[in-house]
Amino acid sequence: MSNGTNVSESAAARYGVDESNPITDELHAFRDTIEGEVVLGDPNLAEIVRLRLLGDISGPMRNTLDVSYCWGRLKDGTPVRVQLPVNQFPLGGLKGALVGMCRAAGVFGVGLRLFESEVISILR
Prior knowledge:
Strand 3 (64-74) and strand 4 form a beta hairpin. The chain has helices at residues 7-15, 25-32, 94-105, and strands spanning 37-39, 45-55, 64-74, 79-83, 88-90, 120-123. Helix content is 23%, strand content 30%. Strands 1, 2, 3, 4, 5 and 6 form a six-stranded mixed beta sheet that branches. It is globular, with a radius of gyration of 15 Å. It has one domain. The protein is α/β, with parallel strands linked by helices.
């Protein structure tokens, strides 16, 4: 849209959902250059660029978040999809669950920038 309105924000308002960190033009461009996939524990993975989680505001699954996608960048700068060993997280205790996942994969979430404010996006 050229009127300056964030499409995600207007859609969120229209459908009554809550979204943190809507996708940006920069992230759209990043997505369009992704060249492959690695696992979270890959030693060539330099950083997590975006982790998109989806949840339900009500209903039986309201306390869980499903992984929609995870994108990262290799040490040589190559954009990649990151295959996580977990595909669902608890809404309460998300950070602890992410730390546990990283520990089990033998990586440090902080070192991969996973906990930077702009990385995790949640749509509920």
